[in-house]
Design brief:
By secondary structure, this protein is of the alpha/beta class.
Length: about 700
């Protein structure tokens, strides 16, 4: 038996044994994302590139969950973990059958390049909806849950997760190939690094992906500071470049002269796998003395170690019997529905919701996202075998008449090419005039909000220019609402939107997955209570934000901003009437009593800490949260651990430690700010902690 097939040895020992049998040419080939077969050693071809931020993506049918920003809005890491476990199960199911058919194509492997744990620092960033939001703690907690459940805890990994994009990456998309992000040491340690450190140190993530942009003068995929951090955190997986990012070294960053130098620079820095084609120049770099055979061998050991950890050279793994029929099964889709239910955020309600069916005969469902599949999907998505759009969900749930009008295109001035501008406004007004209630389904989708190259937004490469709806939708809202009918606005978007209207109720539903329409209908008609919370700050105006290219945190996110706030981070209403009392803190744990005197609902208890030392963030920081389910008149005690790190601050040199001796711990259903208290009608509890 070949030594690398000896399952009694460690993955490191097996990888070393395997690579020792390769020629240098074979080693170099294995560092491509589309690694070729080495038939003489029994190594099949393998494509490292697979996606799965909210369900398995880009390989046909799979369970489609809400986009990652919606998962963040759940404030429920257990449920995020279930999403990851299902994603890994379906990845194994597809991998098993694809292996049988000798299909080694892209998106069909077990190395899932997710989660995206970048900080959503600016609401204009088009890819922000791929993240868990703006807060490092919330991001880290969701990221750890995702990694642990995707990878599993057995000797053989179920699938391999990837923390991306390391580490300072959040737009602009149009500049990402040449942009140099310049965070201060304080912002780096305080905001941009914590989630990555948590995934590496605590969750043992198998992979880290570098970003396109440079960070303080060096490309992220060959950045001394970032690579040193991985060493400091004892990273023990493989490092992969973002796709074609190494080519940017010589084409855009201009730190090298050609592909040979770029390949050498990346490999020497510690980039093991090249998503792209630049590593086809590795042998030329070897010939020119820019890299050594030992450099290539070291990277090859890293990548083969991951394949061994995935059981690819084992006689049998615990996952070989996962059959294809588990993909998108009823149980998996039920979890998608649950996620959608818990992710939708009710921002306003004057009592029109939940809908009383006995008082209505006709509902008008209007808007470009009403019957849109794209509004359910987000990006980096798979395909669902069944979609329930918002319109379909309402039609299925409501026994009366539902009138539908598209109203307008998502962003173009007309729907029919030969028609005049505004060709569907009259139909929308007719629907509104003839209805007892209007549900306006507006927002964005990934054709205008997403990654450079994947969108149809030729002006901003997927980024938003402002926080407004496209003009055609603003006109639609105005024309529909002038009829004076009770109106619910349902906004599907992956980021902060100011709808610039005053409806009777406002729901922000993100991109809620294939069964988003079912979840929406359940909330609208009171079958369940909304319970999502904003994982990002909703600002009033983009013009009041710092420059998009400024990576300083000043004026950004709830921890630093003090004005321009429309709806605060952590805010979200329910149909229940929940009170939080009796805050106590002892031995690193906070405890509160939570009582619901209204209809059954989920709620999220949120903990924030205020540090009064000079190095602390200006406001306060999320340091704990727990989702709780409450029936009518139900009362329970909730205990939430407060991590020791919550008491630390970061100085201007990037040094993190405990500076202060006086803290305030807040507990409630939102932040302890005046706007949240005004919007919710409830206040936070607080206690002083002296250390």
């Amino acid at each position: 038996m070949k030594e690398y097939r000896n399952e009694e040895l460690s993955a490191q020992e097996r990888a070393e044994a395997l690579v020792n049998e390769m020629t240098v040419e074979e080693m170099a080939g294995q560092l491509r994302y589309d690694a070729p077969a080495i038939e003489r050693l029994g190594i099949p071809a393998y494509n490292w590139w697979n996606e799965g931020i909210h369900g398995l993506a880009r390989t046909g049918v799979a369970t489609m969950f809400p986009q990652a920003i919606g998962l963040g809005a759940m404030f429920d890491t257990d449920l995020t973990g279930r999403v990851a476990d299902i994603t890994a199960t379906e990845a194994r199911a597809k991998y098993n059958v694809y292996q049988q058919f000798s299909d080694f194509d892209i998106y069909k492997g077990l190395t899932i390049w997710a989660p995206n744990i970048n900080i959503f620092r600016d609401p204009r960033w088009g890819r922000g909806h791929e993240t868990y939001g703006e807060d490092p703690f919330l991001t880290a907690e969701n990221g750890k849950a995702y990694v642990r459940n995707l990878q599993g805890d057995g000797k053989v990994m179920k699938a391999a997760a990837c923390a991306k994009h390391f580490a300072v990456h959040s737009g602009p998309e149009s500049l990402r190939h040449e942009f140099d992000a310049r965070p201060t040491p304080k912002d780096m340690e305080e905001t941009y690094l914590p989630a990555f450190e948590a995934l590496v140190r605590d969750a043992k993530v198998e992979s880290v992906m570098g970003a396109y942009n440079s960070v303080n003068g060096q490309p992220a995929c060959a950045n001394d500071f970032l690579m040193e951090k991985l060493g400091e955190w004892e990273f023990d997986g493989y490092f992969v470049s973002d796709c074609w990012a190494i080519r940017d070294f010589h084409e855009h960053h201009m730190v090298t002269s050609n592909a040979v130098e770029s390949a050498a620079m990346a490999l020497k820095a510690g980039c093991d796998v090249n998503c792209g084609c630049t590593y086809t120049s590795l042998l030329a770099a070897l010939e020119q003395g820019l890299v050594t055979e030992e450099d290539i061998k070291k990277a090859c050991i890293h990548v083969m170690r991951t394949r061994i950890r995935l059981g690819m050279f084992d006689e049998k793994t615990p996952f070989d019997d996962i059959q294809y029929y588990v993909v998108a099964n009823t149980g998996h889709k039920a979890v998608s529905v649950e996620c959608a239910e818990k992710s939708m955020v009710m921002l306003k309600n004057n009592g029109v919701l939940p809908i009383d069916e006995t008082t209505l005969k006709t509902i008008a469902v209007i808007g470009p996202n009403a019957d849109s599949r794209a509004a359910l999907e987000g990006n980096y998505n798979g395909l669902a075998d069944r979609y329930t759009t918002f319109l379909r969900g309402i039609q299925d749930r409501f026994s009366g008449r539902v009138i539908y009008a598209e109203g307008c295109h998502l962003y173009k001035d007309r729907i029919s090419g030969l028609a005049m501008a505004g060709d569907r406004y009259a139909e929308a007004e007719a629907a509104a005039a003839n209805a007892d209630l209007v549900i306006l389904c507006v927002g964005l989708d990934a054709t205008i909000e997403g990654e450079e190259g994947d969108t149809g937004n030729e002006f901003s490469s997927g980024d938003k220019k402002d926080l407004r709806l496209p003009e055609v939708q603003r006109v639609l809202i105005e024309r529909v609402m002038k009829h004076g009918k009770p109106t619910v606005i349902v906004c599907a978007a992956g980021s902060a939107i100011n709808v610039e209207a005053d409806p009777d109720a406002l729901l922000h539903v993100w991109y809620p997955g294939s069964e988003g329409g079912r979840a929406l209908a359940e909330i609208l008609f009171g079958d369940i209570s909304p319970s999502g919370k904003l994982p990002v700050t909703f600002y009033e105006k983009a013009e009041k934000l710092p420059d998009f290219t400024d990576y300083s945190m000043k004026g950004r996110t709830y921890r630093y901003a003090d004005d321009n706030i429309l709806y605060p981070f952590g805010f979200g209403l329910t149909y229940g009437t929940v009170n939080v009392t009796g805050l106590e803190y002892k031995d690193g744990t906070a405890a509160v009593t939570v009582e619901n005197t209204g209809v059954p609902t989920d709620e999220v208890v949120e903990l924030y800490i205020k540090d009064y030392s000079e190095n602390a963030v200006p406001n306060w920081s999320l340091c704990g949260f727990k989702r709780v389910k409450l029936g009518r008149s139900e009362r329970t005690t909730v205990e939430i651990p407060v991590p020791e790190k919550a008491f630390t601050a970061v100085d201007d040199n990037g040094v993190r430690k405990v500076f202060g001796d006086r803290f305030t711990l807040y507990a409630g259903l939102h932040q302890p700010d005046e706007l949240s208290e005004k919007l919710s009608g409830t206040k936070c509890l607080s206690i002083e902690i002296n250390r």
